[in-house]
Each structure stands twice: as structure tokens, then as C-alpha cells.
Amino acid sequence: MGPSPQRSAAPLGWASLVDRAIVVCRAHWRPLLGLAAAWYGVYYILYAATSVPAVLHALTDPAAWSEPAPRNSGLWNWTVLLVGQLIPIGVDAGLVLMACGLLGGRPVSAAAASGGALRKAVVLVLTTILWLLGVALATLACLPALLLTIVPGLGGLLPLVLLLRWASRPHTRTPGRKWSIILLTPFGLLLYWAVRWSLWGPLVMLEGAGPRHALGRSSQLVAGRWFHVALVIGLVSGLLTIGAFLPLLVVPLVTGQTDVQRAWTDDRLIVHVVRIVLGLLAAAVLGPLAPITRTLLLVRLREEREGTDLAERVERLEATPAGVA
């Protein structure tokens, strides 16, 4: 067994936890970037396959760069779309294993992490489907609940008042008040359960949980710490959204277009290639942040609730190979 990880100090605040995730990404950017680039590279190779002949022709005839780029169609287009949905699941799973190794002082190679993700592929896909089904049901349940936000909820004003009282007066917190806030908040049920189920990925990879158990276990760990988890996930989502929109500013600079909207609807081959390159770079650079943050969240919540530190988790993972053998 490798060096045991140090025991954690007091639980990190939501901003400190995200900062810790960013530090991990910066300190180990090469292996993390390598894994993300390898997985997303598969998708972009498939996506760009129909454009390869046109690109080869443009290398000998520069005027061809201004011609419309070939587009995927038919069965190949559906195949690329399916792969595009599956790749992020595998990337997240592999990065969770790498994060666990880095935090535990036992680094896991990109190849070993990818192998662990592939071995869990069926469970990951089934859990994703179950999660999507739960989110869809929560969304449907929100539609009639929207009436509550208009009449008694005063368009969201009443739940805001109740939320402020919840934060300022802990002794008044009751299940009834909690559900009043949830039901009176627009799409509150969706937000509530999306956060409660947000840790299913690390639980599948690190504890070997099945689909139902992963969602139930995530809900159990997040219970009582919903706002903490929601703030962490919200901050990370905001950072990823900002990062994802940065290529929108780069494409006009590269293509010479002054109109951002026109630059992204431009179907010239040169613009198509630039979009692919920028998309791969953005996915590889931004990809590790979310799974590493969720892994840190899982570790912190387990420490708070169960007194389980990283050393115990790594030992159990070594004895019961749920991810990397």
C-alpha cells in the first residue's frame, strides 16, 4: 500500500472546497488533462470524420477552406450523438478514480482509471437513466406546483422570506417549513432532488453502489447539508459555464468575424475546424473540475457523518476493488 493520506482538518466551507478542487486540478493538470483529452478526443474524431477528406483537400487547395463543411447525417449522426452522451459519463468516472488516488496519495494512471470506468460502464449508464427518470418526474411534479408559487407563494417572495427565517433562526426549522420552501419555490422540487442525487457518480465508482443504492446513498449523505452542496455545485457550474462561453469570443478573432452570432453560424470549413479544436480544448481543460469537486464533497460528507477518512476509504477500495483493481 502507498503512503496513507493525511487526516482532514475541519470541514471545508463551500468556497474553500471549490478552491481545493481547483488546486488539485492545477497541481496535477497533466494526467487529468490527458484522460479528459483522450476520451473527448474519441468523440471529436468521430464528429469530424466526415470532414477529413475536405480538410485534406483544403491543405492542397487553400480556397477550399472557404467552402461549406460536410455535415454528419443519417445513422452516423445518431451514432455521434449517442457517443457524445456517453463520453462525459466515462470521463467523470475515470476522473473520480484519479481524484481518489491523488487525494489518498496513491496516484492512478489515466489508463487504469479509464479501465475502471469501462468496467463500471453498465452500472454508470443504468444509474444515469434512473437519475434522468427521477429528474423528469421531479420536473413533471413541478408543473402543478407552479400554481403554488403564483397564489400563496407570491411569485417566489414568500419562500424567500421563509428561507431567510430558516437561515437566521435554526430553532424554527421543521420538516413542514422545509417542504413549504421547496413547494413554493419555482421548480423547487427539481432543484431539491437534483442536489440530493448529485453524488451518485463518485458513489458508483468508489463504493461500488448500484443505481438505486447510489441515488439513495447520495440523498442520505446530502441530507442536512443541502445548502452547502448546492452552493458548491452552483459555484462550479457557474465557473464551467463561463469557461464554456470563452470559445465564443475566440472564434470571431480566429475567423475574422466581428459578429459573434454570425461567427458561430458560419458553415465554412475553416470555421468548422476551429470550433472542433476549441471544443476539444475546452472539454479537456474544464472537464476535471466537476468530478474532482464531487469527489471532495463525498469525502467531506462521509467524514462529517461517519468519521470515515481518506485512509480508511482507500484501504476499503483496495480490499474491495469497486473501481481500479
Please explain how this structure is put together.
There is one protein chain. The chain is mainly alpha-helical. The chain has one domain (14-319). It is built from 16 helices and no strands. The chain has helices at 14-27, 29-48, 52-60, 74-103, 110-119, 121-150, 157-168, 175-184, 188-196, 200-207, 211-222, 226-255, 260-265, 269-286, 289-306, 310-319. Helix 1 (14-27) packs across helix 12 (226-255), helix 6 (121-150) packs antiparallel against helix 9 and helix 7 (157-168) packs antiparallel against helix 8 (175-184). The protein is globular. The two termini are 13 Å apart.
How many strands, what sense, and barrel or not for the largest sheet? Answer: none
Topology as a string of helices (H) and strands (E)? HHHHHHHHHHHHHHHH
**Low-pLDDT residue spans:** 1-10, 321-325
Indicate the structural class: mainly alpha
For the record, the count of structural domains works out to: 1
Number of alpha- plus pi-helical segments: 16
Mean pLDDT: 81
Gyration radius over CA: 23 Å
Provide a concise account of the structure shown.
The chain has helices at residues 14-27, 29-48, 52-60, 74-103, 110-119, 121-150, 157-168, 175-184, 188-196, 200-207, 211-222, 226-255, 260-265, 269-286, 289-306, 310-319.
